[in-house]
Amino acid sequence: QVQLVESGGGLVQPGGSLNLSCTASGYPFRNYPIEWYRQAPGKERDRVARIISSGGFTDYADSVKGRFIISRDNDKNTAYLQMGSLKPEDTALYFCYTRVLGTNYWGQGTQVTVSS
User: Which of 86, 95, 82, 85 lies closest to 113 in space, CA to CA?
Assistant: First the structure.
């Protein structure tokens, strides 16, 4: 079955950096886009970034443009989210997401907390 497992979250000071990973299994990872979302307490889940199957196109939410970079390694079945210049408002549970043959799949999430 399709599984997405995020890792790399943690506590970081404002202005710091953090790198998240999303390891996929159970489907042909290289054939599908993958996206990162985040959800802060009491707020909706919002898309942060997405990358197409080949990695040749990426798209970002305005709030993270210039600070975050999404990438993927199709040989390792893994997507990444490099986060820099982190702000307290980036604090959230971060999820990776894909849609395979009409079904949505989410990981369990990894917590990112930006605080001094």
Answer: 86
Per-residue pLDDT of 13-31, as tens digits, reads 999 999 999 999 999 999 9
DSSP H helical ranges for the chain: none
Supply the DSSP symbol for 29.
Answer: G
Q: Report whether 100 contacts 2 (CB < 8 A).
A: yes
Residues 6+ apart with CB under 8 A from 71: 51, 55, 58, 79, 80, 82
Beta bridge partners of 88: none
Length of the chain in residues, anyone? Answer: 116
